Amino acid sequence: MPRPFRSASLKSIFGALLIVVACAASCKRDGGTARSAADPASATAVQSQLTVLRDSADAKWQAMVASDDQKIGITRLLLRELQQQPGSNPTQLGALAAANDRLKARRYTQTNLPSAQIDTYDAAQDSLLHALYPVAAPVGGAPTENARNFVEGLQQLDAGVASFRIQYDRAAKQYNAYLALHQADVAHFGGKYPAPQPLPIFELASPQ
User: Fold this and answer.
1) Rounded CA gap, 151 and 141, in Å?
2) Where is pLDDT greater, at 149 or 15?
3) What is the mean pLDDT of residues 80-106?
């Protein structure tokens, strides 16, 4: 009788050990899954990549704004050049200068990019340039070399507006797509700063 009892006991102990090992393995797998879902290292990598993509979009935006600022500055220089010419119309040039000075205050921002405001700003700047060109270069001829250079510079900058916006849109869309793909990781960023939000875009299509 002792031998069967010993055999049964060993089987019971061995069976219990198998259950414990299986449970431990299962718990390890479950724990690994939980850690993976909230892995601080993963969240840090996502945050780092988002920073790179955001910096790229910001750089494109800043280049676009710098170009627009340059256009406003050249317009101001052109108007001053014209005001020094004999027979100039101070009232007309003064009105154009005032309209040019108001542009920056009316310009859209990176965090506020409604299409209506974009259209309003573009219309204001286009209206100014369309009124200025005939005064600065009547019948295609500017009164001075400086005036001619300013007009040519304005035309080149104006032609590049769409390209700047397309480049910004491309960078902003890359940021937005990556942000949408990693929302679960973004939820684990924590800290005192608000969660990153998608960037507004111009919605311009690249020329074919």
Assistant:
1) 10
2) 149
3) 96
